[in-house]
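Before the break, one more example. Copy the sequence into your notebook; we will annotate it together after we see the structure.
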Amino acid sequence: MVDERVERVLLYRLGSLGDHLVALPSYRLVRRAFPRAEVRLLTNVPVSSKAPAAKAVLEGTGSVDGYMGYTVGTRSIWELLDLRRQIAHWQPQVLVYLAGARGLRAARRDSRFFRMCDVPWQIGVPLTEAMQLNHFGKTATEAGAAELEPEAARLARNLAELGDARLENAASWDLVLTGMEKQAAEVAVGSEALGRPLIAVSVGTKVQAKDWGRENWRALLGRVAEQYPGHALLMVGAVEEREASEFAAADWRANGGGPVVNLCGKLSPRESGAAMAHAKIFVGHDSGPMHLAAAVAVPCVGVFSARSLPRQWWPVGVRHKVVQHRVECEGCGLETCIEQGKKCIVSIGVDEVMGAVEEVMRYGVQERSWKGEYAMTDERPALLCISTYEKGQAFLREAARLGCRVELLTVHKLRDADWPWESLTEIHTMPEDLTAQQALPYVTRLFKHRDFKRVVALDEFDLETAALVREHLRLAGMGETRTRYFRDKLAMRGGARNGGVEVPDFCGVANHDLLWKFLSSTEGPWLLKPRWSASAIGIKKIERPDEVWPLLEQMGDAASDHLVERFVPGEIYHVEGITWEGSVLWASAHKYGAPPMQTMHHGGVFTTRTLDRKGEEARELLKIHERTIRALGMTTGVTHSEFIRAKADGKFYFLETAARVGGAFIAEVSEFASGVNPWVEWARMEVAALHGEQYRLPELRKDYAGSVICLARQEEPDLSAYNAPEVVYRLKKHHHAGLIVKSESAERVRELLEQYGERFLRDFYARMDAPDKPRD
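Here is what the structure looks like once it is written out:
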């Protein structure tokens, strides 16, 4: 919208440096919408100065022509009447409301006041809950941290009738620093510091609830000095923060850090921004200096309290790292926290902040581009990983180690799970139990400002979502049809049989005539299996043909999501595989102790072990596995496939496969036996494919390994009595007992698992009924 008839526009925005910096795109939108108008800003008069804080940052940007000031929270009727008189005398035709969300009652009161000032046109007054909230109209709990929009985006959304605020455009955020401001900054920093890589730090804050503590800052800077010798330290902030900055820099000096330049109180805010533009990184509180640093394209590490909700006030950009702990009282807005003792921020450790500093320093300063979410370009290739279960940490770490920008989409309840936070650029959440079609909008929303090159499903139950996303957005990787062969038990059986692989007799249940003929012509018992479930979840054993019909009737329309298979008694095996460009590069054959179906439905101890590579079983399994993978059309990825050796005829039959890593610590068993962790190698393949490079296996070992795991009666089982020298790993998980053994001898591994399995039954074993649907 452009209206050249408007001659006077009044902006209303309160706050200090950061508040006005995040509003810059909105200020410029108003200027474009009313190009002939004089624009004045009504803002608060700071206690410490007669000049509005806004002027300290907006001067020179061309956004505002003049200022009106008043004391926030005043109850003086005379001051309010005087303010009304000033506004009415100036006769603005438009009010653009950019004040922070303070509730519907405050918004209505402000609207009435400006009507009393005879302002005819009001824009952006947040008179609905959706305009007040920084999360697309949802509650914070429902939306989750990943859904919360930044304050800049909320302001722009409320001014949508004026047009696009161009949040992605660099010009919207430009401070338009003058030559004199840049020269003043260079003189203040000095040639010695400018000749070194600079680390900018601000330890001050005027809000008690945001204060991380002097001792923490001192310890952190001591660590930074040790890690980055030869760097210079640039301290910025208000004059009142000069002494605190000197205190914080003491350990930097003591640990041999480079020169320290304390500019607190020596430069204007804009000159401070010009000084920080020379820095490689900024570290500080949620503060004006942090927003200044982000505005001049410096990657930031922000130490945040939870007084504001996640993302609401994070620095603009995606190359920043924010350390913020979520607590039940988050979003309190308190300036002084007494009752809770600032637990949200004091719980943040120096190690955690140091880890964030190291990650940001690893990639250095990026050139600013605004194709991302109001962001500096992050030149690392981007991976989006989807996992609605807590798994895949090794994949996430390896992908990040190889130089990728890794973002994770999970469900709301796993937002604070044990993810490798140091490896994730960002984490996003969505509700539980969504179909692939329902999940699609949550994924496509992330693509608005992110150029993800690959989408990876870390769990079997997310394969359909990832496949749909690839089809929908035309990305590389398996689409929906190919994914069915690694997800749908009916499709994979048909595909394997067509490829010449032995499969137990089976039949779909959609056509009851065909099913009746199948039951009449095959010998029972049979298994009724969900086509889309994993492992033994949801499987029901049927002894007589007439038992199947009531079960199908109960299922209604969901019946066709099942199949019936002849039950084949025997021993269960699994093969872990790595396939690259259609060739199976690595496969390892293993044998379960009790079959997983028996363990899940009847209880017991789970064991699995590497088979003797020279033995007949292993050699035969690897041949069948390769035929299966080729028949199902796997091109590149990892697989977990299961086979059964029938007692009746001694043949191996294909049971199922999945384009995922085996659960129950099978990846660790593989790593100890072969030197191959499928999670890690999967990440390496994804990165190699992304770069158009060839993937190569790591150097292989020829040891043997096995695991024994069960639910435990004890909350923290004591495994100290299991002290054979072959024990290489002990599981640490509530109410679980587990360990991994490793040996050069496959027979020794088998002996230990048999012994330990019996002892686990006596010492730890507890039973839980098999779930009808998957659990975490």
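The CA atoms of residues 389 and 775 lie 8 Å apart. The radius of gyration is 31 Å. Try to locate both features in your own notes.
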